[in-house]
């Protein structure tokens, strides 16, 4: 009972803090208002009449939570993932000759049961295809044989498992050369054309980094637009487990205007800055804003916002992990905070004489993101990742308001 009361009081504190923040954020802070920026860049376009997309990525490692998933609100269920080899074949076995887990789980009875449930709910099923290192991506995009093999391999799985759509998640870290960048556009075009020849309703979606309109990245946004149905903006990991400061995972705002007097609270980047750049290039209805169901946890040198972190102490903190902290008898001095800078919550606690900080999302911060999506007339949201919230359902409450006026 004591832990339940403590959790209730902390939740109430964050909730009230978020209400106060929302009432004052446009007038009292030296930061750029997201609503103002988006209105300028979208030209106050009329609200979309179609239903907003709620896209949920389901990583294979969360299959153990399949019986606890809340998937009824989804429009798209995206299995994550099937990985490609450099030659374009599906990665079925690892270096130890063990079955690759993404492929293994896709073919399991547990996933078959979950997949059937999504069909009963009339949700669009999406096959996510991944390539995560520059060498593999370069091979798949510049070698014609590897590229065509990849298209054929993807469509074979797509048809065999009866997916509706395809998601391409090629995460090239760094600056690609022109041949790789152009080759990726050609790859997506060929994949879309080939998929349509098998299923006239097939859609192909592409995941992009949040800074893709600011920096030279793999994705030629203008070139990809004719062949890409949705662009999932990975608007998270602004701070990571390896960051030298503890900061918000998905800050709506926080990048200060030039010559700001509040430099100690300023962030290097934020969602609204990146979104303002992307909406200049892409049609807003094709953009899905990625939102995290997780945060990060670090040991820090102080209890300050943006406190320095100790090396190699960062770890991913699922929403269920955050909930469990309040019933941990070894934890003391828990403080629930709300950042006016990023419009997101964070926790500070002590354990064994050490200070820890968790930056995360809660229903109040997600509500701000939902309002941003609606104000900017975006196509919807994409959740990373289903299962990180289980068995708690409160993150879904603000999402239920996505398609309301």
UniProtKB/TrEMBL annotation:
What keywords does the record list, in alphabetical order?
Hydrolase
Molecular functions per Gene Ontology:
chitin binding; hydrolase activity
Origin organism of this chain? Candidatus Collierbacteria bacterium GW2011_GWB2_44_22
Q: Where is the GH18 domain?
A: 52-405
Write down what this protein is called: Glycoside hydrolase family 18
Q: Which SUPFAM superfamilies match?
A: (Trans)glycosidases (SSF51445)
Stored InterPro entries: Chitinase_II/V-like_cat, Chitinase_insertion_sf, GH, Glyco_hydro18_cat
Query: Which residues, if any, are the signal sequence?
Result: none
* Biological process terms in GO annotation: carbohydrate metabolic process
């Amino acid at each position: 009972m004591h832990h339940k009361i403590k959790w209730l009081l902390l939740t109430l504190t964050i909730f009230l803090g978020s209400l106060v923040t929302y009432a004052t954020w446009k007038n009292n802070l030296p930061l750029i208002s997201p609503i103002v920026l988006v209105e300028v860049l979208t030209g106050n376009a009329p609200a979309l009449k179609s239903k907003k997309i709620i896209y949920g990525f389901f990583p294979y490692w969360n299959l153990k939570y399949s019986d606890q998933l809340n998937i009824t609100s989804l429009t798209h269920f995206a299995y994550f993932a099937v990985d490609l080899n450099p030659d374009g074949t599906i990665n079925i076995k690892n270096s130890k000759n063990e079955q690759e887990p993404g492929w293994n789980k896709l073919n399991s009875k547990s996933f078959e049961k979950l997949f059937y449930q999504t069909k009963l709910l009339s949700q669009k099923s999406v096959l996510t295809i991944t390539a995560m290192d520059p060498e593999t991506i370069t091979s798949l995009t510049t070698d014609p044989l590897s590229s065509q093999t990849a298209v054929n391999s993807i469509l074979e799985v797509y048809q065999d498992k009866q997916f509706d759509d395809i998601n391409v998640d090629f995460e090239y870290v760094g600056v690609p050369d022109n041949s790789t960048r152009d080759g990726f556009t050609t790859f997506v075009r060929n994949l879309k054309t080939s998929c349509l020849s098998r299923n006239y309703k097939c859609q192909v979606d592409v995941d992009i980094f949040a800074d893709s309109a600011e920096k030279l990245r793999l994705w030629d946004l203008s070139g990809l637009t004719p062949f890409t149905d949705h662009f999932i903006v990975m608007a998270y990991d602004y701070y990571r487990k390896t960051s030298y400061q503890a900061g918000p995972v998905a800050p709506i705002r926080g990048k200060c205007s030039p010559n700001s007097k509040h430099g100690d609270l300023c962030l290097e980047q934020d969602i609204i800055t990146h979104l303002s750049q992307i909406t200049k290039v892409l049609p807003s209805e094709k953009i899905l804003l990625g939102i995290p169901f997780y945060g990060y946890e670090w040991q820090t040198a102080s209890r300050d916002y943006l406190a320095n972190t100790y090396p190699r102490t960062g770890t991913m903190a699922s929403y269920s992990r955050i909930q469990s902290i309040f019933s941990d008898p070894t934890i003391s001095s828990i403080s629930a905070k709300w950042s006016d800078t990023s419009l997101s919550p964070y926790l500070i606690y002590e354990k064994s004489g050490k200070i820890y900080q968790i930056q995360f999302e809660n229903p109040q911060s997600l509500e701000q993101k939902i309002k941003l999506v609606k104000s900017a007339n975006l196509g919807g949201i994409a959740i990373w990742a289903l299962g990180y919230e289980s068995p708690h359902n409160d993150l879904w409450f603000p999402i239920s308001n996505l398609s309301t006026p």
